[in-house]
Amino acid sequence: MTDPNLDLQESGWEELRREARKIEGDLDVKLSSYAKLGARFTQGDTGSPTVGSSRSWKSMEMEIQSLLEKLLDINDAMSRCAASAASTTSVTQKLARHRDILHEFTQVYLLSTL
């Protein structure tokens, strides 16, 4: 017989991982768009930013910041979930990978805002 608490923790872990992967995908798309928008401004293709493009730039920055915060929260929840379960090496490695991805996205975003 399996421990119902363990089953609940495993389903919670998988749900958190699904959510993390979705947000990671969204961040990848947003950061790519953000970089392209920045490249257009720095190359001078569009001249100086217009009021509308400046608004969309700020909106995109806020969306990226919000996604980074959500991903941080999910990583924290995954850490708590892993700590409360008898986590395996596989879980520990997956958690470390999600933390690395968050760190990479944060660095990309911070570098693109300079």
Automatic annotation (TrEMBL):
Nucleus found in the keyword field: no
Domain of life: Eukaryota
Stated name of the protein: Golgi SNAP receptor complex member 1
UniProt GO cellular component terms: cis-Golgi network; Golgi medial cisterna; Golgi membrane; SNARE complex
PANTHER family: GOLGI SNAP RECEPTOR COMPLEX MEMBER 1, GOS-28 SNARE- RELATED
Record localization: Golgi apparatus membrane
Keywords assigned: Golgi apparatus, Membrane, Protein transport, Transmembrane, Transmembrane helix, Transport
Protein family: Belongs to the GOSR1 family.
Membrane topology qualifier: Single-pass type IV membrane protein
Main location: Golgi
Keyword Repressor carried by entry: no
InterPro entries: Golgi_SNAP_su1
Molecular-function GO terms, alphabetical: SNAP receptor activity
Gene Ontology BP terms: endoplasmic reticulum to Golgi vesicle-mediated transport; inter-Golgi cisterna vesicle-mediated transport; protein transport; vesicle fusion
